[in-house]
Amino acid sequence: MASMIPPIGTQGVYGLKAPFTTVPNTVYTCAAIRYFVDLENLGVNIYTAYYQPFGLETAQVDADRRGTVAVITLVSDSAAPIYVPSSYVVSYPDLTHRDYHHVVLSASLGPLPDYIDLSFVQASMAALISDTIGLEPKVHISVAPLTDSVSPEQHEFLEVARQAAIVNRTTPRAQVLELQQTKTQLEQRLAIMELILRDHGLLPE
Length: 205
Known about the structure:
Blueprint: E1 11-12, E2 15-16, E3 28-35, H1 36-41, H2 46-51, H3 58-66, E4 70-75, E5 82-85, E6 89-91, H4 119-133, H5 152-165, H6 172-199
Antiparallel strand pairs: 1-3, 2-6, 3-4, 4-5
């Protein structure tokens, strides 16, 4: 029987022939390739270990032995390992598979009074991330209680320092609109100046 043996480390979605199955949409990695002779030298009974539990006949072991079949170990972070003869592997991913993770970018702001509106910060962060990596993020705000209280004197001191450190008070969109308005005004002034110069013969027609 034809045998498909993936290289060690091959990661992605595998296709197996019944009675062997993988968990749907689960990424597996080829962790080991063991040929029959190696397993038998270790005292492993190939049939009882890998074929009999799936209702396969001993004749299948003999056929796979002639076809130089190996036992493939597939491992996953979210599912039990699978030990499958390579004759039952019908497809495996190529080495260009890219592993994806759910990524959360967080920033601790420290103690803040509860009246501060963070919507501008959320919008600015979303715009920066979108412009930088091309993704539209969902920016959430999480609040945890403080174990120590902030005195009125500490509050005044912190607020003065915080307000003095602010250098950005407009959103990127507002900045773009302001620049576009300035550009339009400059273009209008340039057009008027060119018209005046032409009227006085100082510019060629």
